[in-house]
Please model this.
Amino acid sequence: MLAAAKIIGAGLATIGLAGAGVGVGIVYAILGFALTEALALFALMMAFLLLYGT
Model:
């Protein structure tokens, strides 16, 4: 049960990566790209934390 919850949580955390993909397509400045990339890395970190955290 706990393993299933971890996988579901990681899947939900990766929804943030979709926002990063949209942001890359609408980049107007270097700052915008940096903020988008930071959000994507944060979402990826949360997914890994949910999967492999204790």
